[in-house]
Amino acid sequence: MIRGLRVFTEMISQCEHDVVVRAIDLKFGKRRYERDHWDGVITNFRETEFQASFPCFERIEELLQSLGAGKLQTPHALDLAPNGHIDPHIDSVKFSGSTVAVLSLVNAATLRLGPSELRVEPRSLYVLQDEARYDHEHAILPEGRRLSLIFRDEVASER
Ligand SMILES: O=C(O)CCC(=O)C(=O)O
Predict the structure, then answer these.
(1) Where residue 90 sits, what CATH number does that domain have?
(2) pLDDT tens across 52-105, in order?
(3) Does the beta carbon of 102 lie inside 6 Å of ligand 1?
(4) Residue 25 Cα distances to 8, 29, 59, 108, angstroms
(5) Ligand 1: which atom is nearest the Cα of residue 80?
(6) What b/e string do you get for 122-138 counting C-beta neighbours within 10 Å, with b at 16 or more?
(7) Residue of 36, 4, 1 whose CA lies nearest to 130
(8) Domain count of the fold of the chain
(9) Mean predicted lDDT score pLDDT of the chain
(10) What PANTHER family has UniProt attached to this entry (predicted)?
């Protein structure tokens, strides 16, 4: 396993999952999927900042803080269409700090991290820090529509 990669399966309950998905779907409304992202790595997606005071978000924040993350930015919801994908990349150190954590929703996906592949199930949280954050590209190959919520800390906590 790559140093700095952690996976927490069943980070949220099915009921919490359904509430979060419904709230994100409401926020997207009828917004269309976009073909290309400005950063060139995400295809067929919609994204939005998503701030909410759900107890499961507080648990995630506490967990990330216990792992040494700095102050969290507003989470991002990313909705990949069934034909969407995320190409290999390392998150820019200009926009995110030492911790990138992703809550997977709706459908499972394959996370490619450097030389390894891992199936990420809905309701699980994967966390990238250290080598996993800075030294290996990650990519996502979804299996059907996939939503994710991305928690990043602020740049001040960069290593
Ligand atoms: O949705 C994911 O699992 C990854 C998101 C991602 O790679 C990113 O936003 O940089």
Answers:
(1) 2.60.120.590
(2) 999 999 999 999 999 999 999 999 999 999 999 999 999 999 999 999 999 999
(3) yes
(4) 24, 6, 22, 18
(5) 1
(6) bbbbbbbbeebbeebeb
(7) 4
(8) 1
(9) 94
(10) ALPHA-KETOGLUTARATE-DEPENDENT DIOXYGENASE ALKB HOMOLOG 7, MITOCHONDRIAL, SPERMATOGENESIS ASSOCIATED 11-RELATED
CA 15 to centroid of ligand 1, rounded, Å: 23
SS3 121: coil
Atom 10 of ligand 1, residue of closest alpha carbon: 91
Provide, rounded to the nearest whole percent, the portion of the chain with pLDDT above 70: 98
Could you tell me the distance, in angstroms and rounded to a whole number, from the CA of residue 4 to the centre of ligand 1? 16
Identify the band that residue 1 occupies on the pLDDT scale cut at 50, 70 and 90: confident
Amino acid 85 reads H
Q: Please report the atom of ligand 1 found closest to the CA of residue 78.
A: 1
DSSP-based three-state secondary structure for 90: coil
DSSP single-letter state for residue 145: S
The residue whose CA has the least distance to atom 1 of ligand 1 is 148
Q: What is the pLDDT of residue 157?
A: 47
Q: For residue 53, give its domain range.
A: 5-157
Q: Which atom of ligand 1 is nearest to the CA of 76?
A: 9
Whole-angstrom distance, CA of residue 17 vs CA of residue 24: 11
